[in-house]
Amino acid sequence: MKFARIIKLARTLSVFALLLFFSSFAHSQQFDVAIGGGTLFSTKNITASEAYLPPSEKGGVYPSVSIERIFQNHYGYSAELAYRYDQGFYNNYQHFRPVMYDLNAVYAPRLGKKMTADLTGGVGGETVLFYPATGNCNYVGCSTHLDSNHFLFHAGAGIRYALWRRVFVRPEANYYRIVNNTVEFHSDNVLRLGASIGITFHRD
Description:
There is one protein chain. It contains one helix and nine strands; from the N terminus they run H-E-E-E-E-E-E-E-E-E. It is mainly β. It has a single domain, classed as Porin.
């Protein structure tokens, strides 16, 4: 089952997070783990009259998990995974589910007593899982290809607010420039808006 790949990837990221967590106390000032959710925004073709053109990659609920390590100079690095929770319906024919993951450099300046900015930039990839439709495809231009993988560039911005003790909330925006994404979708540019809640571990 293709959804099992997402679970396997999430477990791998969790193991990586634990290893990073234990090593972080020896060298870094803080380590964050967060879970969140959001949705995608992207442009669509509004002028073409042909059927079965690549649709826009937008909508859906995207759970996410992220880890972040910040040093005393406010710089650090992070990793994040986000995937579409429910399957999309590609051109009203084939179900699909995008999965996006990225590794980033981080700059986290303090904005106040309880507020910190999270500015990230890095690279990653997108895997689009396609679930074969029942029967044969008889539509001109209908996509029946296998899973698709693309390299991406990522930039993100969020405002972290210390909610209670080590717990924080973070409204956030993530921009993806997905290379050759127009093979399956209308645009290479995708925006994910949402929020995360997490916990911070400080070095004492």
